[in-house]
Amino acid sequence: MLGWALIFAVLAVAAGFLGFVGLAGVAASIAKLLFVLFLVLLIGGFVIRAFRGDSVV
Length: 57
Known about the structure:
single chain
């Protein structure tokens, strides 16, 4: 999921550089959404593993 967020971020930068402002905005929004979703799942996984007594790292 983090890979997809990075792909959309690069796409947004490339589209913005080439002048495709609408496409750049959409790609940036998707990248932000995927990155936040990745962070939420990562933190959730850490919390669940900590409550189960497993090693968090």
